Amino acid sequence: MSKTFFLDLEPPLLEEYIVKNGFSRYRASQITKWVYKKRVRSFTDCSDLPLDLQKNLEERFLLRSFRKKDKKASKLDSSVKYAFESYDGFVVNTVFLPQKDRNSVCLSAQIGCPIGCSFCASGRVKFRRNLTRGEILEQVIRIEEDRGIKLDSILFMGMGEPLLNYQNVVSSIKSFADENQFGYSRRHIIISTVGIVPQIRKLAEEKIGVRLALSLHSPDDNIREKIVPEEVPYSVKEILKAGINYSRDTKSRLTIEYVLIPGINDNLASARKLLKLIQRGTVYKDQIQVNLIPYNPTGLKDTKTPAKENVQEFKDYLLRHKLLTIVREPRGTDIGAACGQLTLE
Question: Is 339 annotated in the active site?
Fold first, then answer.
């Protein structure tokens, strides 16, 4: 009999399994503590469980599914890219991003990406499948084990579109935020999306409470269609409206991510149009932050990193009009770990 990956089990299913196999319901909370808090690698280490339950669990479940394939540390900064091998032989990339005041992790939600943004290497990788709930959780466990720390922030900004793997991403977030499992603040969990409008609305309705980042990249629909393909059939106004409503409903800051691509969207006219779009869309301008991301070379033909003066001009224009704007400095460009650089290699 093949084993089931334990981390794929949501708490109600674990309780159901425990009771169905003749054990007391409270054993489920004991098991949860051993797996999520103490991070045991074998059920035989769960010393307060009866031996027959230990044996049952050991025969039925796996506690780890990944093989660690590779780890690369950047020589330019302190970021580290981990490559894990999934049970079916695909590579799952996870990026550790240490900073002075916090340690973050950039998680993948899919193997390959079905969107295909022009500037993104992940978009040129054939979509294979969604990561399971457990595979998302295991990325965090593996990083924390390897670094010997507890992470501060979780960013769904790796490979794939998180909201196209909605069920597993939301399930993993509930575990991340559960005090009996990972215990992270929901405000320190960010989902980045190209703008899957129905799922943004659903996320708000379910009151998940995490922060949202919109990968907007242009205030102009015609230009955005050259960057983000027609697989995302929503206008910039629709996406921004959904994001603003989410921000209002959850009382959280909305982040707008904007990759600056030379000759396409890094001009002052785009900055003016972006500001106007935001001003028309909300009175909550103080609840919006714009992250400008200079394009990282990913093999896009005839495209280089934007000129520093263009980046500064774009930033200064938005700041002059009281819109919080920062330039997100690239991390891990030398190891293929920066924004838009993750692949299956």
Answer: yes
